[in-house]
Amino acid sequence: MADKPFIHPYIPNSVPETKRAMLDELGLGSVEEIYAEIPERLRFTGTLDIPPAILSERELRKHVQGLLDRNTSSVEFLNFCGAGCWQHHVPAVVDEIINRAEFVSAYCGGDYSDLGKYLTRFEFNSMLGELLDLDGVANPIYDWGDVAGRSFRMARRITGRDKVLVPAHMSPMRLMEARTLCQPEAMANSTKIRFYGWDRETGMADLEDLSAKLDDSIAAVYWENPSYLGTIEAHGAEIVELAHRHGALAIAGVDPITLGVLTPPGTLGADIACGDIQPLGMHMHAGGGCSGFIGFRDDDPVFAQECPLELYTVMETATPGQYAVGECMAERTSYGSRDQGKDWVGTASGLWTIAAAVYMALMGPQGFREVGETCIARSHYAARKLAELPGVEVKLSPSFFKEFVVSFDGTGKSVAAVNKALLGHRIFGGKDLSADFPELGQSALYCVTEYYDKADIDELVSAVKEVTA
After folding, report:
1. Which of the ends of the chain has fewer CB neighbours closer than 10 A, N or C?
2. d(CA 316, CA 371)
3. Tens digits of per-residue pLDDT, 314-366?
4. How much is the average pLDDT of 280-300?
5. Residue 240, H or E segment
6. Do residues 278 and 256 make contact, with C-beta atoms less than 8 angstroms apart?
């Protein structure tokens, strides 16, 4: 038995005869020849300190379940933390459809693996475009921060300018991702990110500061609605007008679940919109349920030409009068042109595109309006009740959708202490803002969606009252 070769039960083509046939086809003597171009100094030659492979499917499932059981999730606890990944209700039909074999298992790299994905993605693009009031929508990838960076690079290519203005209270995580995509400023083709201020009383954009910083080097002005701190931005149209007055593009960062009650970015005049479809039918999955979208105006072909992500459209087939859905202008992407593509693109979140398509079709305009109104009603109820507690204050504008800033300065307790104590009540408190926004003191970003009802909110308020006493 010791002389038998190891054949991994979960990795295809691991049978020695199959490996040998593949190497022969390539004209190689061994696998080592594949790695020959990697210098020895960069290659690990030791033995990895990892446990032995678990070959039994039953034992593997038991091991993984044991790891998962260490977690404490929002199934067992009430969760009032959002900050980029939010707990919304996911209708059962969404899970049912995305777990169909033709959707969940097959990679979509071409017509050979379509199996209905192209049509579903086209329907997603159509519905999201209607929500955004923009004619062009690309296939989503990764998350909001990623597509923000890609939108900034897109604006740079369109305008030939190399700077983008973003609000100083942009999500720190989104900002880090965008900076990575935009490359270090020492690089020749970097897109440079600059900041404009925000009003500490309202949480909205400081239009005076924005106007002072706009000049002919600015490729785009980016704003978020709602902002990372939860405030509904009332100056969207003015931001667009200021950007266009200086020849810059206007890029809106948008939470799409708000668009049943808030004005769409296209209606405000935005040239590009980006955001995350996670609220549209995706469980949080420990942060893995995110997927970033890019939408754009289509009156000028340059926007489609410079969008780096996949585009799907309806086209006539070789049979007159017969139509099919296929990829449009694939040469723009890294799939079509590899290193010469506009940006790297992938299919990492393609399944979430289908989930969002099912969710939007199920909800319809009335459903989006109702979920938006419910989020506003419940979050405002929570804010009002929390603000009644001694030493607790709700900061910034009273105009918010589902997230709001709660200050514990008056209680003499830190956010960390409050959140730790709330765990004893089986509650996840708000996102601690004290490190990223020290000007807000000991404040947390609380999130209340349609997922939680009055009884849940009252339980939160009662717990906060006890732990801050």
Report:
1. N
2. 38
3. 988 899 999 988 888 888 887 778 777 777 777 778 889 999 999 999 999 99
4. 93
5. helix 236-245
6. no
Please check whether residue 162 is in contact with residue 192, taking contact to mean a CB–CB distance below 8 angstroms.
Answer: yes
pLDDT attached to residue 193: 98
pLDDT-derived band at 458, boundaries 50, 70, 90: very high
Locate 116 and state its tokens. Answer: 């209905």
Domains located in the chain, CATH noted: 16-62 (no CATH), 78-86+365-468 (3.90.1150.10), 92-308+345-359 (3.40.640.10)
On whether the CB atoms of residues 464 and 418 are closer than 8 A, the answer is yes
Helix (H) or strand (E) holding 404: strand 403-407
Grouping H, G, I as helix, E, B as strand and the rest as coil, residue 168 is coil
**How many residues are recorded in the chain?**
469
pLDDT higher than 60, residue 1: no
CB contact at 8 A, 248 and 271 = no
C-alpha–C-alpha distance, residues 193 and 175, integer Å: 9
Contacts of residue 123, Cβ cutoff 8 Å, sequence gap at least 6: 357, 361
Which whole-number Å values give the CA distances from 288 to 291, 353, 443, in the listed order? 9, 14, 26
Kind of pairing, strands 218-225 and 249-254?
A: parallel
- Write the pLDDT tens digit of every residue in 438-449: 999 999 999 999
pTM given for the model:
0.90
Query: Tell me, what's the pLDDT at 110?
Result: 64
Characterize the bridge pairing of strands 427-428 and 249-254: unpaired
- Strands of 218-225's sheet, edge to edge? 136-137, 292-296, 272-276, 249-254, 218-225, 163-167, 192-196
Q: What is the pLDDT of residues 111-137, one digit of tens each?
A: 656 778 888 989 999 999 999 999 999
- Using the CB atoms, write b or e for 378-396: b if 16+ within 10 Å: bbbebbebbeebeebbbbb
Rounded to whole angstroms, the Cα distance separating 423 from 431 reads 14
Amino acid present at 46? G
pLDDT at position 386 over 90: yes
